[in-house]
Every structure is written in structure tokens, then in C-alpha cells.
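Worked problem 6 (solution included).
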Amino acid sequence: MSNLTRLVFFLFLLAPTLGFAGAPPLVDATWMKANLNTPDLVVLDIQEPKDYRRFHVPGAVNAPYGSWRTSDKGVPVGMLPTTERLEALIGGLGIDNGKTVVVVSTGRGAGDLAAAARVFWTFKVLGHEAVSVLDGGLVSYAQGRNPLESPVNRPEPTKYVARPDPELMLNIEGAKALLANQGGFVDARSAGEFVGLYRGGKEERPGTIPGSKNLPYDWVTEDGSGKLRDAGALEALFAARGIAHEGEQVHFCHSGNRAALTWFAAYAVLGNKQARLYDGSMMEWARQEDLPVEQQIKLCDAC
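Solution. The predicted structure is:
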């Protein structure tokens, strides 16, 4: 065997490992099937338990989406849980700091993809770099006639130690500071919410954060599905809405769920590492009377 042949053979053996090590933030069903048996890969299914027990990707562990958000006393519903709680949750799933995680939602629509993006963001906030989202979720995976299973997988608990990334943890004080510095704000809610025709709750003033650009979260998917548009289409969409591809950028919605998807498009696909998700979003901002809210359409004084 010549030296060249040996080299080619060696690279062939390494190919699956090299491809896995460079897993992009967004992976497709083909990638998922090819890497199912790769060591240190954890498939994280965020369906409700009853749906998980019906079918899931082989080997997947389950932690429903609600467990990644909080309703602690004094904390608005849906915000990021404490670091300690997340460490316990992740360690209980058999995920340590060396694991690569692929987040899988059902994939029925843009909302499911947003949920997966939100869990992706959670891992990034905790300093976990090796995390991806399955584009199209379980629906796309199943359509490719890929294997599914129904038994519940019970992983061996391990220790997970968070290394929080402060650059991604934007709270209300950070949002106020960026507004003062004329940072770019992206409202991922519907047009009706953006202009102030609809409000998120009785205690919230209708409208948006002044100067924001509106990019409804489902627009970044293919026809509102659970699949993200490609990078070229996202670039064109951002440009059409007057949203920069780089620089300081704050993505928000009502509770930090829908905006996770526009943030993911900006941060993970378009590469804007200065894009951040405002966790509290309008459910926090619009309740504070001292913070500005812009209502573009006001139908009556009592509205």
C-alpha cells in the first residue's frame, strides 16, 4: 500500500468523526441519521412526555420544553431558570460538559422550531458550545423514513457545570442601556402586536420598544413550517425589514420564545455574535410605567 493510499484510507476512517466535530448549529435529518451512533452525542427531545413515548429519535432523552423555562415566585413566567436548576436538569439527562447536544422538537410549525432555538440559546447562555438544532424537527426526520422508537430512555445522571456567558445574558437593565445607545431592536411578534393593536396581557401597555424593527418570527421559516429558510433568504429578509446583519442587536417578543427563532437566525446562521435575546421581553418591559413604549396605532383613548 502506497503512502498516498494509506493517507486516503486514514482520512476515510476519520471522515465521520471530523464531520461530527464540526456539526453546524442547524443540522438536517440526513446528518442526524448518519451520526446517531456517534459517541458523546445526546439527542435531546423537548416534546411533551406523552408525545415522546409515542415516537422519538432512537436513543433520545426527554425533557419537555416547559422544563427549560420557569414560573418561580417573583419571576415572570417563561424566563430562564436559575443556573443551579439548569445544571441539575442537564446533568439528570446524562449530559456532561463534553457532550454534543442536538435539540429536537416535534417540528409541526414555526413555534416548535422557536422552542428548539430557545433551548439552544439556554445551552449557549450556560457556556455550552457543542449544541445544534434539528431543522424541521421530528416531522422532517420521519418524512425521510428514518428509524424511530417509542421506549423511554433513562440516562445515567452525571454532573454538569455551567460556565455562563454574560455576553448572551441580557436583562432589563442591559436592554435599557442598549436603547439609550441606540442599539438595534428586533420585535419578533406579529404586526398587530408591534403596532399596538394587540397586547400581551392586561397589565402590559400595547406597542413596542421605540425604534424597533418588526420581523415576525414565522417569516424566518419556510412558509411558517418547522424548517428555517436558508442563509441567502434570511439575508434578503433581514435587509427587507431594515435589520442589519451585524452589530449590537436585541431580539424580543412577548416572553422570549418567538424571538429565540429570529435570534437564532441572526446569531447561528447569519453569524452576528453581537445578537442577543432579551429574556423578559414585553411581558417585563411593558409592565414598567417608566419605560417607553411606542404605539403606532391607537384606536381610542381608553384602548
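Discussion: Residues 126 and 162 are 5 Å apart (CA to CA).
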